[in-house]
Amino acid sequence: MHFRLAQWYAQAARDLPWRREDCSAWGVMVSEIMLQQTPVVRVLPRWEEWMRRWPTPAATAAASAAEILTVWDRLGYPRRALRLQAAAQAIVERHGGEVPGTRQELLALPGVGEYTAAAVACFAFDQPEVVVDTNIRRVHARVFSGHALPGKTFTAQQRKLAHDVMPQTAHDDGELACTWNIAAMELGALICTARAPKCVECPVQDLCAWRAAGSPPATEEQQTRGQAWAGTDRQVRGAMMAVLRTGEPVQRSVLLETLPLPEAGMEQRVRCLDSLLRDGLAAEDKELVALPGVI
DNA sequence: AAGTCGGGGGC
DNA sequence: GCCCCAGACTT
Predict the structure, then answer these.
(1) Which of A82, A121, A179, A242 is the most buried (most CB within 10 A)?
(2) Are A148 and A199 in contact (CB under 8 A)?
(3) What family is it from (predicted)?
C-alpha cells in the first residue's frame, strides 16, 4: 500500500508552497496552524502574505497584535493568530529563534497540539512521526475499518490503528514516514473525501474494506452534526472582529449597536465584546475599542 | 468526553 | 441551507 500511495502522490499531489524543498520550518509551521479547520484554498493567500511580511519567528514575534490580526484577516478562529505569535515569541526566547525539531518541544508551544507537533516534526524535520489529521482518520476508517466515517472524537484506538498501519520501515525512516503521512492526507483531501468520494480514481480501491463492504452509509453516531452558526456568540464575535479589522478605534457603544445582526440582543453583544477583550483579540481605552496595539 | 471557537465554498 | 474543512484548549 505504501508504494501505491507514494506513486499516486508523486503524480497527483498539489503544488503547495509549504511543501516545496526550500520552504523553511517556520513556513511549514505557519501553514499547519493556518490549516487547522481551514481549507487549503483559503489559506494560500494568507500564508503568502504572512511569509512575505514575517519570514522568521523573530519577525513574527516583533509585530504588533493588530498587524497580526489584520493579516490573518478572515481565516477564522483568530485566537490561532495570537497563539502563532506567542509560539514565535517562545521560539525566540527558548530556542534561539529556530523552530525546534522534535515533537515534544513543538508540543510545548502555544497553539501546537498533537497533530501539529507531529506534522511539523515530520514534514519539516523528517522525523518518523505518526501524523493523524481528519483526512487520515477518514482514510483509515474506510480502508482498514470499513466504516464510511470515523467517530467524532479522536480515540486511543484510532491512534493505535494509525501507528500499526504505518509501514514498519517508516517508523525508523523519517522520509518514508513523511511520504506515508502526506500521501494519506492528500488522498483524503482529493479522493477519499467526506462527501462523494472519488473511489473509481482511488489507487487503493481494491484494498478498501469500506468499498469491499459495498460502501455502507455512515451510521447516525458517525454523523458529525455541524455546529450551529446563526445566532451564536461566534457569529457575533466574528462580526465585531470584522469591524475592528477596519483599523480605526470605535466607540464601545457604536460597536455594540451597529452590528449587522439585528437578532443579537444587547446582553449577548456585551458578553461577546467582553470575551474578545479577555481573549486579547480587542483592547479598550476609556470608551474606545480597537485591535490590541492600536490603543 | 463534550463545548467553544470563524468563516466561506461546495453541494 | 447544511456540511465540512491539515485542531487546540478548557471544563
Answers:
(1) A121
(2) no
(3) Belongs to the Nth/MutY family.
